[in-house]
Structures are given as C-alpha cells and as structure tokens.
Amino acid sequence: MSVVELRVPVIGESINEVTLSQWLKKDGDYIQRDESICEFESDKATLEFPAEVSGKLIIVAQEEEDLEIGALVAKIDTSVAAPAGNGAADPAPATEAKAPEAVKETAPSPKEDSYAKGHPSPAAAKMMKENNLSAADVKGTGKDGRITQDDVAKAAAAKKSTPAPEVQEAVAPVAGGKSFSRATTTKKMSRMRRTIAKRLVSAKNDTAMLTTFNEVDLTNIMALRKKYQEQFVEKYGVKLGYMSLFTKACAKALMEMPGVNAIIDGDQLIYHDYADISIAISTPNGLVVPPVHNAESLGFAEIELKIKALAKKAREGKLTLEEMSGGTFTITNGGIFGSMMSTPILNQPQSAILGMHTIQQRPMAIDGEVKIRPMMYLALSYDHRVIDGSTSVTFLVKVKKLLEDPTTLLLDI
Predict the structure, then answer these.
(1) C-alpha span between 73 and 216 (Å, rounded)
(2) Domain 1-82 is in which class?
(3) What is the pLDDT of residues 120-163, one digit of tens each?
(4) Is 384 an annotated catalytic residue?
C-alpha cells in the first residue's frame, strides 16, 4: 500500500490558516491527478485544491474545519487501480467486440457514470444556493455532465419565468394568521465573514475615524448618460454607469490632494502617486473590495469594464489574491440597497472611504427658485490621524463639483 499525504499548500504570505468549505469528492472515490477534491476558503478568496497523484481518496479533514498551512487534508492510496469506466482500460475488450451496436447505444458510457455528472462546480454551487436551486433543478452540460454557471443561470431564468401557484397552496393556514415558531438555527461564520468582522473592529478601535457629509446634484450626470448612453454602449459594449464617473472624480481629487491618498505606517506616512480605488462588492459570503488599479489613468469605459469583470469574479468566488490586493481609497455604494445616509467604515490601511447613497428627487433652491433635482448624500469617512478636518471637507467638495459639472472630468480641468 502506497499512500501520499495531501496537505494545505502555501497560499499567500499573509495567510496562515484556511477553512475547508466543502468536499468536491467523496471518501473512497477514485481520484485522477490534478482533479479538484475540495475547496478552501481563505481570508480573501476561495480556492480549489487539486490532487497531486491518482488513487483512492481517504478523507482526513472535515468540512467547515479550520486548518493551518501544512495541515493534513487527505490521503491518496496510489496502489488502488482506476475502476472500469473511470479512465481505466477495459478488462474485456472481446466482450465489446461481440456486443451488437444496439446494445452499445443503450449501454451507459463511462462519462455518464462519472462522479462529475450532476455535480456543480464550486462557483455553480454558490449560484445554486443564491437561487434556491437543487441539482435536480439543473441539467449539467459541462464535461462529464458537470453543472456549470451557465447551466445554473438558465435554470434560474426558467424558474423565474415559470409561475408556481402550488407554493401558495402549500402554505398551511395558521390560527390567528400568525406563526409562533421559536426555532433557532446555529451556523458557523464563514472565514471571510470572520475576517471582515475582525477588520471592522480593528478599523473602529485602531483609527481616529470621523465622517463628513455633503450632497451632490446629479442633474448634469443624468443628462450626460441619457444623451450619450446608446453611443457609449455601441462603441464600448458596456453602459456608462455612475461608478465610473464617481471613480474618476475621486481619482482626480486624490491626485490633487495626495494626503487623502496616503496611509499611515507606524510613525511614517506613505504617499501614492497613483489612485488604486477599491470598489465594495456584495457577495453571498460578505463584502469584498478589489481595487481598480491606476484609475487616474483609465477612461470611463475601461473603468466600467474592470468593475464589471471584478464584480462577476467576486460573486462567482473566483477573485485571485492579486486581484484582492492593494487599494489606496475605497468607494462603497449603499444606494443600490436603498440607503439614504450612512457612515462607511474605513478599509484599513487606507485612510479614507467614500459612501454613495440612493438618489432622491428633492426640492432645491436654484437661483431663487424651488426646483426638483436628483440629489444624493455623500459621506467621507477618514482617519483623523492622517487627514485633517479641513482637508476632508475640501476633498469632498472637489468631488461634488466634479460630479455636478462632469465636463471638467472629460476635459481634465
């Protein structure tokens, strides 16, 4: 018996521990070399763990278990031969030669008997959870019948378009029209959620955080988008959204006020001559903030495409550690959830974060007249150890003016 041990690999310099979020194979399964057997969740990303050799899988670690780098995950018995139908040679080729064609057509192929059949990829599994779909609801079209993200997307779309009156019939009437259940459910926090919790407490306790507020009139931006949206989409294949305009405005202001773009390191300040703007993205596992690098040098279409690509990867759990690293300033948009005003918390080690909020039609005094304008509250949270109050207010006013007159952004003046 020859057994090879599989241990948690080194993932990144700052990562000392991971969580085994789910097994992709079962104990006793025959595993091919380089085939993914489980999924690790680190502080920043979700990663698949491939087998180093082929053989029988012997599971050691359990799902939801926290493992240090180098900890034993599983063993593979390489002395076990691949079973028939799993890539091994057919032990009785003569039988196949004698079999009539009709029998061959009805006999299941090795691929149909594959473990992958009806089994979702990690990203597809997350999409299934988000859309409340089971494996029975989705037809796998991937390799060996594996369920892909496209399969889940199609099934989710079909589910939305199909009426389900039986759901209403299934709800049993309760006396008085109320349910008096007092059941509770306990679930372990994901590693990402635990990391987020620690970082938020650290940001609150270790920084002198203050927030300044202002409001911006989006009349001109909305007119700009309405006038040029069709041409923009036709040329670049992506819509001109609010995020690229806000990102560009913040990047321009950061270049003019490097103090807001600085971070504190012990008793020193580190300034940046570039603006790597982190964009807060909500995912099923929590909030992630991958940065758009050198936003000050990118065009609106480039920013939109980068944000779109990062958001897609984030929601599918495919962001790499490199894509999660860096960032000198953060933008978070609570407005997409309906937030009217909030105090965003710092994304350490950054010194400032801009909070966007919902757009509301409000009466405003314009040149002595009351007019209805699309208004948004802006919030800038900042570390007072790095940024003075006057600096924070000036920065937010610069961003406000750039957004209210987007021509200055286009002309870079």
Answers:
(1) 53
(2) mainly beta
(3) 776 677 677 777 787 778 887 776 677 877 777 788 777 766 65
(4) yes
Q: Tell me the two tokens of residue 32.
A: 């091919």
- CATH code 3.30.559.10 for 193-411: yes
Question: Rounded distance, CA 106 to CA 96, Å?
Answer: 13
Q: In this structure, are strands 65-68 and 55-59 parallel, antiparallel, or unpaired?
A: unpaired
Q: Which residues contact 408 (CB under 8 A, 6 or more apart)?
A: 401, 402
Q: Is the pLDDT of residue 33 over 90?
A: no
In this structure, the dihedral spanned by the alpha carbons of residues 249, 254, 257 and 258, taken in order and rounded to 10 degrees, is -170
As assigned by CATH, the class of the 90-164 domain is few secondary structures
Which residue out of 77, 144, 272, 384 is catalytically annotated?
A: 384
Exactly one of 150, 388, 405, 412 is catalytic; name it.
388
* Residue 119 appears among annotated catalytic residues: no
Residue 220: left (phi > 0), alpha (psi -120 to 50), or beta?
Answer: alpha
Please state, rounded to an integer, the average pLDDT across all residues of the chain.
82
Read off the pTM. 0.64
Mean pLDDT to the nearest integer, 22-47: 83
Return d(Cα 396, Cα 252) in angstroms, integer.
12
Residues 395-410 as b or e (16 or more Cβ within 10 Å = b): bbebbbebbeebeebe
The residues spanned by each domain of the chain are 1-82, 90-164, 193-411
The closest alpha carbon to 221, from 57, 374, 353, belongs to 374
The angle that helices 242-256 and 300-316 make with each other, rounded to 10 degrees, is 110
Query: Listing from the earlier edge strand, what are the strands of the sheet with 55-59?
Result: 3-7, 72-77, 55-59, 30-31
